[in-house]
Amino acid sequence: MNEQEQKMTEVTIKNKYFLGHYDYITVWAAGKEYHLKPDSEFTFLTSQKKEEIAISLFFSKSRKVIINCSEKNRIFLELKPDMKKSLVLNLLNLFIGIVTMLVIPGLFGINIRSIAIIIISVFFIFFSNMVFAVKTIKLAEK
Fold first, then answer.
1. How far apart, in whole angstroms, are the C-alpha atoms of residue 68 and residue 111?
2. 9-80 has which CATH code?
3. Distance CA 122, CA 88 (A)
4. 130 near 20, Cβ under 8 Å?
5. Which residue ranges make up each domain of the chain?
6. pLDDT classification of 43: cutoffs 50, 70, 90
7. Is the pTM of this model over 0.70?
8. Is 35:49 a contact under the CB 8 Å cutoff?
9. pLDDT tens digits for 59-114?
């Protein structure tokens, strides 16, 4: 083999992440954009020693991971939930929900103002789930 030739590494990424209300996860790898639905995968070839992979549930790249390809012919990666981060996010949402539903009406009484605060808090919980969902995804080598 000629020293000028570079060794190619085959990288396969499979989505094992349950998306819930999201259609797909966007992955940027080897300069291309891929849309992964649940249980789908894609493969690309790279000659780079280190390859940057970015993950997002929305339009901008939210999370970047660098994989080392230098000594491997084939790499298999999975997108799956990071249980520790998911647990922390769910406990935070539970705490916010309990505070919202029990404490706010106790402080202000049941009136239009407390109902408005509860509705805003429910939207906040939903929005925080969307924003932080990408933080609960990890790219693990299989």
1. 58
2. 2.60.40
3. 18
4. no
5. 9-80, 84-131
6. very high
7. no
8. no
9. 666 778 888 887 788 999 888 878 888 788 888 888 887 877 777 777 777 788 77
